[in-house]
Amino acid sequence: MIGIDVVSINRIKRMHEKFGIKAYEKFLNSNEIELIKRVETAAGFWAAKEAASKAIGTGIGGVCGFHDIKISKTNKGAPKIKYKKKIRKKFNIKESHLSITHDSGFAIAVVQNIFN
Ligand SMILES: CC(C)(COP(=O)(O)OP(=O)(O)OC[C@H]1O[C@@H](n2cnc3c(N)ncnc32)[C@H](O)[C@@H]1OP(=O)(O)O)[C@@H](O)C(=O)NCCC(=O)NCCS
């Protein structure tokens, strides 16, 4: 199953200007926050987590929150995504793939899940 999401980079920028680090903590863990060197990346991560929630058919909410999804990067800068174990088990997820792009004020992410 796949999921996609688009986010206005300005929206994330305004959120960060208003709430500072707390804005990022709402949807990112500390390892993810360390990867943020510019707001485009943060917007991409937001889109990635929304897309991941769609790729299990729930959306962000009670079943799958922002903190149930973890993003990391390879040494070449490619983003990787993994759900917490309880989600992987519940939805029978074998592996997950993520791609992110940003341009012209928007960040877009696509997530693909391969199931067992
Ligand atoms: C990585 C690359 C595909 C990004 O494409 P782009 O059009 O510049 O930028 P986009 O907005 O579409 O994508 C950026 C996102 O791609 C993702 N990305 C970065 N490196 C990646 C890689 N090796 N593989 C897959 N995805 C990658 C990241 O999520 C990045 O956003 P983030 O760092 O904010 O999280 C492109 O820069 C590239 O081909 N780089 C490798 C070659 C290179 O670095 N050449 C320059 C020196 S010779």
Give an overview in words:
This protein has 116 residues and is an alpha+beta fold. The protein has one domain (2-115): Alpha-Beta Complex (Ribosomal Protein L22, Chain A), CATH 3.90.470.20. Helices cover 38% and strands 33% of the residues. It contains five helices and five strands. The chain has helices at 9-19, 21-25, 30-34, 39-54, 85-91, and strands at 2-8, 69-73, 79-83, 93-103, 106-115. Strands 1-5-4 form a three-stranded antiparallel β-sheet. The protein has a two-stranded antiparallel ribbon with strand order 2-3. The N and C termini lie close together (12 Å). The mean pLDDT is 98. It binds coenzyme A. Residues 40-41, 44, 76-79, 100-103 line the site of coenzyme A.
What does this entry show, briefly?
The protein is built from five helices and five strands, in the order E-H-H-H-H-E-E-H-E-E. With 116 residues, it is α+β, with helices and mostly antiparallel strands. It starts with a strand and ends with a strand.
